[in-house]
Structure formats: C-alpha cells, structure tokens
Specification:
homodimer; 437 residues; alpha+beta; 37% strand
C-alpha cells in the first residue's frame, strides 16, 4: 500500500504553542503507551507502521516543516509543496511524485490521509479496506467514515447506502446534523483512496506537465481548493468504509485537553485545590499559579500567554491573528533557539537568543548585512569559522562577528551559547546570506 | 506635626508583581489626577503634603527598601530598622530617632501611619485632629476610625462612646461584625498619635538605652509584636476621630483591581469582548490573550504568572509561599535589571541579565568569587574599570571580566547592556564583594 500523509496548516487555534514554524501536529502533548510525550505526527506514523509494517509512507508538506519532520520521524520520504495551497493541489502533486519520481503505474492506488488524526488502531487497519474499494475496481474513490457520537456542527457528513456514497453535507446546523445521524450518515475522516492516473487526469484540466518538475513549477496554476470540493463531490462512484471507534479533531484546546492525562504540564505549575476541570501548560521557566479556575485552559509559552475558558478556546483565531510577533522559539535541523530579549529602538536594535546545537551539527556558513553578533559559549565544545579562519571554542569563549563577516559554528559536543545581535531595524531571520562552497 | 510612615512587609498577596524587594506599596498601578501611574507610597506622600505642607515626614522601613524609596520619593528622611519585626519595635525606634537624632522634646507628639493607605484627602487632613487629642493632653493615644460600609471579617474594630474608645475587636466573624456596625463601631485605620516620651517608657520595659545607636543595636530585644497589642489595648485613655470617606486595604488583587481605571495594562494584551469584570496586567513583552473570562485577574511578570478568580486572589499566600525563585526583576539605586535566562546545570551555571544604568550612576567596584561575566554594551556610553584600568565603552563594546577581577561601570549616558554570567552553583546576588576605597 502507498500512504500519503497530508501535513497542512499553521494551527493558530493551538496558539501560543503552535506558530508558523511549529504547527499543531508537531506539538508533543499526548503520551504514548510508555508514558512518553509524542506529537500527532509521531502518533499517526507509529499507528500506521503497526497496522501496515510493509507500507510505503510519504509525507506531503511545506518545506518550512522539513526540519521538524526530520527531528520527529526517522527517514520518512517527503513531498514538498512549492507553496501552501489546499488538499486538491497537494494530492495532485503526490500523485505526480509517485508516478514520475517513484515510477509507480497509473493504475496503482494510493491513500491520502490527514497527518493529525486522533483515532484508535482499528482506524489505521481499515485503510487497507478503503484502498481495496479502489484497487479492486469496485469504486473510483474510497472513503473512511466514522460513526458520529453527537450531532457536531463542525464536521462534514457522508450519506451512504450499504457502503455506497449517495451525498455529502458540510458542517450542518445542529438540527440538520441530528437528522443526518438518524439517517445513518458518517463523519467524513478526510481519507481518500484514489488511483494515480485518476488524479493526474483531474490535474490536466488546469495544467499541462510531462514531468514532476514541470508540475512543481506550474503548481500555482492548480486551483486552490479542497480535494473534496474539486473531485469527490462530483464523482458518482464512491465507496465508504465505516469505522466505529474514537475519532477526534484535536485542533482546539477544548478537544485536545480532553485527551491529556495530566491537568498540568511544565516545571513550575501551582494549581490550587479549588480548580476543577482546568488545564495549565507552562513552557516557561517562571512559575504559573492558578487559583479557583473552572473549565479553563492556561497556556504559557515563549510566544505568549493564553487564558481562556475551554469552550471559548475554539474561538481564538480572530484575537490571535492580531498578534504580529516574530517566532520566539524554533526547532531547527541543527537544534533549537529561544529569543530571550528583543528591543527595537530608533537607530539601534538588539536581540538576545539562547541557542542549542546538537553534537555533530553546524550552523551554515553565513553572513548578515544588518547586524553584528557576539557569542558567549555556555556549555560544550565546538569549532568556529570566521572569514575562513577556524578556532576551537568551549565554555567561556567569546566570539565577536562583525557585520558582513562570514561565520559558522560546528558543535563537537552538544553546544549551548548566548547570541547577542546588535544592528538596525527588525533583526529578523531573513537577514541571513548562506554561502554555498 | 511629625508624621512617621510605616513601610512594612513583602506583600506576597500581590504576587507576581510584588516580591521581597518590590513590596506592594511601591507598585505603580493606580493613576493620579494627571493620568500618571503612581505607587501607594507616592500617593500617600502627595496627599499628606497637600493636607499639611509644613509637616515633617519620616519613613520607617527596612534597609532593603532604601533604593526604591529614593527612586520614588524626593529627599524623604528614612529610619532604617535593623531587622524586620513588627509595629511595636518600629514605632519605638521612630520615637528614639525623633528624640535622640532630631532632638525633639519628650512631650512632643508624633503620628504613626501605614504607608499604603487608600483614602480620600479628608483622611489625611484629619491626622491633625488625631494629633491634637494627644498634644492637648486630652488623651494618651489618638486613633483614626473609618465608618464601616459592610461587616468585614478582615479588619479590626474600635468601639467608642462620643470619641472615647471603650474597647477593640480584631477580625470578628460576620455576625459579630454586623452587631458591631449596629453599635457604631469604627474600622481601625492603624493610625496612632502618641508622645515620644510615652513610647520610650514602654520600650524601657524590654531594653535599656541612652542613645539611638544603643537602641538600634539592641533592637532584637524589643518584643516582636504589634503596637496595638503591646500598647494600645492596655491603655485606658484613648480618643478616636471618625472619618466617613473611602478607606480600603488594597492588599489583594480583588480590592486593588476595583480601583484600577483600565481593565488591562501592558503593551500586548488582547481581551475578547466576551470577558467581563476581569483585569489583565502584562509586564512581559509577549502577548497575553484572554478569552471568555468572568471576574478574573491575570497578572504576568518576570517573576511568574497568576491566573485567579478575583475572589480567590485573597487566598494566594499558601501557593505563592511554595515558590522558591530568585528575583527576576529588581529596581536599584543605579537603575534596574531583568533576568532573561537562568540555567543551573551540574558543574556549570549560566545567567543572562539585561541591565540598565541611569546616566551619572555606577555599579559599585566589586568582584565575584564564583563567576566570570561578559558584558555586551547595547546602548549608551560609559567607563569600565577592571583591576584598576579604565576604558571607555559604547554600543557594541564587549567586556570580559574573569572570576575574582575587580570591576565597575559608570554610565556617562543612560546605558543598556547584556550581562552573561558563567560559573558554578546558584549565581546569586550574594556573590558580590564590594570594594570600599
């Protein structure tokens, strides 16, 4: 079987833990059976590998998620979208990748799934049944539908007759949803089994291509729409496999905290006995004190602090979209960094970071047009290169890097250092010129 | 008139804004008539100077408050307690100071008042009437009593008959408090008019002294108890002046936020329209998002984050007392500092501060046994001295100070710099040896 996991959006609804570089599917908030925290990405991959040990798994995602994927998954094959569009272009790109790059046949079936599904193992076992609907030539499209447990207004519904899909209803009002439940409708899980050739035919309505590179270059000509809307809703031959277990969208604090074992997370959380049904997550190294909270969620991270009722946490987007703050914490291929201080003053700005480079990794050889940097090594050993000259550094070393000076840092052991940037303007992540040698 | 303002405790109940070096009376949270934020100390001093322009005002406080007082009040005369005890020792020390150091007569009267009273101007005008009860020899002690507006269980009550005090009741249960209100009892405002000689007589029961220095040295021999308990409750000749205006203890977030004009404070506070009767105070430079809050208070500072119902905020002490964190922000004589990062690892610790020195001020000449320091100047000009050698520094300068090296920094203009400390153990404020030359 070929499975393509679709890794999408930025997930502002899980702010302040999720941001543009750390989408919700990468947050390690739920525990696996060994009691270790894992992300949604890691959970889904673990469940797929367990259900189908021999299957080929690909991840379709934006290039900005590459470092995160590499950190969280061992050697997974990625299909990078040239830009963020929607599920129709993403699935087309995946089909083209499988055909042109992996040399699969046009008649081969693949299964596209969301990467952030919260479901039981049975759900992932059923992917084989969904695939069989199409590979057996019974249907053009195979879907997976979850038995609804309540008349949700947030989900899409599949109407069916003995496994054959008759119609779709998207996010109905509550009374309509109740009727749908009575009629045996299923929640649409966003799983699609389709043939490679079938998808490529749909794509050629919008764009001509004879290679993966051509499609990649012309990606923006593909309609920015969902695969449901562009393909599924127009197809008469669709089958659906029913799934009766737990299936949830953990995209809001309200639904996510329901699945968290512990009501507090972080080093320094002090919750009074008078609190009930409340969750406090603290990623900062200062204490959080919670007194008398009922049905609330408190989340403190380097990007900000959220205090909300659980119910209200589904409606954060408009407030969070007003925030215009640079990322204060990022995980990278080489390690991670935290912004400790940022001051923008007329004519002179400063930014202080705590950086961590993993043993054997390095910052790329680069220079900055707008800023000088000073590094103070706190822990570990490494090798600094400045304008071609290398030297060893260790705890206590101070390295001064003038504006325009080329520099890199290789970590011999795990390496921590404080970086002080001085310059003008915003001191953003954009002011990096990487030197390829 | 002689007024002694008593500046006490640490005020854990206003955590995380108040801490051991920043007591609640120094927090600038309420606005004056010009719309500028002022502290309780500044407010009370302003009201006293308006009511009694010619009066002598002294502040009795702990030496740790000296820098804050100097920052907030212009040239006020301070009486430093050698250790933190209670109002009886503090008032005795003040009486000794007035007699031995200011050469006042034993028959002179002075008025001792709390420094953190929230009251109308009339309250401060009435201090003259309280004083007159004693200076006219009518009574041994003069008190100020506020007309109660509700049967509080938190305050002390004065029972009186036409201005003569008959008895006291401390923190009665609600039903008893209701009875007291019906009997015309007043809230005890903690104001005492007494003669210097009268107080010194009481002190000599516990300690012999012939000078201020002698009392200062023997301060710990004075009973650690309140002036009410040790003196007032045993005195038959007490008068009380009634005050009918607003009088409040703003010692909890519940009572303090009632007096705040704005429901949010700080740069980056996003409050949804669904919030009601809630206050959000943000001293950090990351955003706080509040959604759906009812009757709550959220306070974020460098020392921690509080989320509580307003009602619950009166019961913070037990939770806050569990916190064992070094101060993360302090105002000092020379400026202020903020801790940006603190890591304690086996064998090596690091601490990063952002420091601000006011133009014309200097860090004292000092050295550290346990740590090296690196300074990166961000803004401004100054003069650094290291082991006797001076040099000028400005934005971009990097200064390395090895362990045991003597160093100081004078700010020619307002000066900002980042300090990175590397060493072992706790990297506390205690590891400073100041050199007196």
């Amino acid at each position: 079987m070929n499975i393509v996991l679709l890794s999408g959006g930025s997930g502002k609804r899980l702010w302040p833990l999720s941001n543009n570089t750390l989408s919700k599917q990468f947050l390690k908030l739920l525990k696996n059976e060994h009691g270790e925290y894992e992300s949604m990405v890691q959970r889904v991959m673990r469940q797929i590998k367990m259900a189908h040990p021999a299957t080929n798994v690909f991840v379709s995602c934006n290039a900005s998620q590459a470092d995160m994927l590499q950190q969280q998954l061992d050697a997974v094959e990625t299909i990078f979208e040239p830009s963020r569009r929607d599920t129709f272009p993403a699935i087309v790109l995946a089909a083209a990748y499988l055909y042109y790059e992996k040399n699969l046949d046009l008649h081969e079936t693949f299964v596209a799934c969301p990467i952030d599904t919260f479901a039981e193992d049975e759900y992932f076992q059923l992917l084989a049944k969904v695939e069989a609907l199409v590979s057996s030539e019974q249907k053009k499209i195979g879907l997976l539908g979850a038995l609804p447990t309540y008349p949700s207004e947030k989900y899409g519904y599949i109407l069916q007759n003995k496994g054959t899909v008759t119609s779709f209803v998207e996010k109905p009002p509550c009374d309509k949803a109740e009727k749908l439940l009575a009629e045996g409708a299923l929640w649409n899980c966003g799983v699609f089994a389709i043939k490679i050739g079938y998808v490529l035919e749909h794509a050629r309505k919008y764009v001509d291509f004879d290679s993966y590179e051509q499609l990649y270059e012309r990606y923006d000509n593909l309609l920015k729409t969902s695969f449901d809307y562009e393909v599924v809703e127009k197809e008469p031959s669709i089958g659906v496999v029913s799934y009766g277990g737990v299936w949830k969208d953990l995209g809001t604090w309200n639904t996510l905290t329901e699945e968290m074992e512990s009501t507090s997370m972080g080093q320094e959380v002090l919750v009074s006995e008078s609190c009930s049904n409340s969750h406090v997550l603290n990623m900062l190294n200062i204490p959080v004190v919670a007194q008398d909270l009922q049905d609330m969620v408190v989340v403190a991270s380097h990007d900000g602090i959220l205090v909300s009722t659980k119910q209200g946490s589904s409606f954060l987007k408009p407030l969070v979209e007003q925030i215009d703050l640079r990322p204060m914490y990022e995980q990278r291929r080489w390690g991670d960094y935290r912004v400790l201080d940022y001051m923008q003053a007329e004519g002179s700005s400063s930014l202080v970071k705590r950086m961590h480079i993993k043993a054997g990794e390095a910052l790329s050889y680069q220079y900055h047009a707008q800023r000088s940097e000073t590094w103070i090594i706190v822990n570990g050993d490494g090798v600094v290169t400045i304008d071609g000259n290398t030297s060893e550094v260790s705890a206590g070393s101070v390295v001064q890097i003038p504006r325009e000076s080329k520099h890199s840092l290789f970590a011999t052991t795990d390496l921590d250092f404080i970086e002080v940037q001085l310059g003008t303007g915003e001191l953003g992540e954009e002011d990096i010129t990487r030197i390829i040698e």
